[in-house]
Specification:
It contains 9 helices and 18 strands. It has about 375 residues and is of the alpha+beta class. The chain folds into 2 domains: about 260 residues, 3-Layer(aba) Sandwich (Aminopeptidase), CATH 3.40.630.10; about 70 residues, Thrombin, subunit H. The strands form 4 sheets. Strands 1-2-11-3-12-15-13-14 form an 8-stranded mixed beta sheet, sandwiched between helices. The chain has a 6-stranded antiparallel β-barrel with strand order 4-5-8-7-6-9. A hairpin with a 2-residue loop joins strand 4 and strand 5. Helix 1 packs antiparallel against helix 3 and helix 5 crosses helix 8. The longest helix has 17 residues.
Length: about 375
């Protein structure tokens, strides 16, 4: 393993193990703040919604290219304590079946869910140590140990802390490359409850209007988008398709570079590229395929009615993770090159005209009916 790979995997391991929830991303913010403090050539700022911007002080000549990743993950947040009963709100999307009798760890306190209302995403859990908790404490599923295949990485919160790690790794490399001075990172809050941070950044204008945005995600593995198949150029999500020009430029550059990758419509969920694109920004997406999305083990089998809903750590391929870093740097360069699509279409037009010139097109006779 090369030195940089080992360092990036260390960041990946640290970030994906942090307790985080929508609106309670403090542990991730602290980690990123410490990371940025070791790099005085970077600027770290926060907008009024608490989103973090990491940019290079030696800005390039082009408009910004920002990798966008979110700092939250579906999790339990303590709302009340009443004796041994812990009231919670679950911030994120997980099927109700996964909550029944599940064990949840709030730091050193282990509790068992006794009821859960899927409509309000609230419920209660019991623990003899509940008195040790306070409102705002974050709870994560208690996972059973399991074997992880060689070459894969499993953690409580790959979505989207693996995206954060990949984005920071790409920025760490870009720092030493003068032509990438315009590349930066936007880390958003509360994505799992409706893109709250991304929408705030777009509507308040803390993201420059001329920025090119690349949403970085871990996205549910699909039958034609497999873990280990390489990083994915995301054509769109379950809501919409992304910017055609940006997507095509990245696709051509990845192919020219010989990088193993996939190009897929990842319709298992949605991402912040839809939020920014819907508000007039140019945005596209990159991701890696994710197993046990939102900690839902046996998800495919469960949805088919054949499997038990067991909480599990999320899982990605390490080669996909490192490929995502490489793809991000390829993308940052590619988006500054002229988009050859129009020239390609005009060239194809010229070459195709001979087929029209070989004969005339005669309209069929009309009988007067439309």
């Amino acid at each position: 393993m090369t030195g940089s790979r080992a360092i990036y995997e260390e960041w990946l391991e640290q970030l994906t193990d942090l307790p985080t929830a929508s609106g309670f991303e403090g542990a991730v913010v602290d980690w990123v703040t410490g990371w940025a403090a070791d790099r005085p050539d970077l600027s770290l700022t926060a907008d009024s919604g608490g989103n973090l911007f990491l940019t290079q002080q030696a800005l390039g000549e082009y408009s910004p290219v920002l990798a966008v990743a979110h700092m939250d993950h579906p999790a339990f947040v303590v709302t009340t304590i009443d004796g041994e009963v812990i009231g919670y709100e679950f911030r994120g999307g997980v099927d109700a079946d996964y909550f029944q009798g599940a064990l949840v760890r709030f730091g050193d306190v282990l509790a068992r869910v006794v009821d859960h209302d899927p409509a309000s995403r609230t419920g209660s859990a019991v623990s003899e140590s509940a008195v040790d908790l306070e409102p705002g404490a974050i709870g994560l599923w208690e996972f059973e140990p399991r074997d992880v295949p060689d070459g894969r990485f499993a953690a409580p919160a790959c979505d989207d802390l693996a995206g954060v790690a990949a984005s920071l790794a790409a920025l760490d490399q870009a720092r030493s490359q003068a032509e990438l001075g315009h590349f930066g990172v936007l880390l958003t809050r509360a994505e799992e409850v409706g893109w709250a941070g991304a929408l705030h950044a777009a509507i308040t204008g803390s993201v420059p209007r001329d920025a090119r945005l690349i949403s970085i995600e871990t996205s549910r593995e699909l039958p034609d988008a497999r873990i280990g198949g390489g990083p994915i150029i995301r054509v769109g999500d379950a809501l919409t398709v992304f910017d055609q020009g940006l997507t095509n430029q990245i696709s051509r550059a990845a192919a020219d570079a010989g990088l193993t990758h996939q190009r897929k419509l990842m319709a298992g969920g949605t991402c912040e590229a839809s939020a920014f694109g819907g508000l007039g920004y140019r945005a596209t997406g990159l991701c890696v395929a994710l197993g046990n999305w939102h900690n839902r083990g046996n998800l495919d089998a469960f949805e088919a009615g054949d499997g038990e809903p067991v909480p599990m750590t999320e899982e990605i391929a390490l080669d996909d993770f490192h490929g995502l870093i490489d793809l991000l740097l390829i993308a940052a360069r590619a988006l500054d090159e002229p988009d050859p699509t129009e020239a390609l279409m005009r060239d194809r037009y010229e070459r195709s005209q001979m087929y029209l010139r070989r004969g005339s097109v005669r309209p069929e006779k009309s009988d007067g009916r439309s």
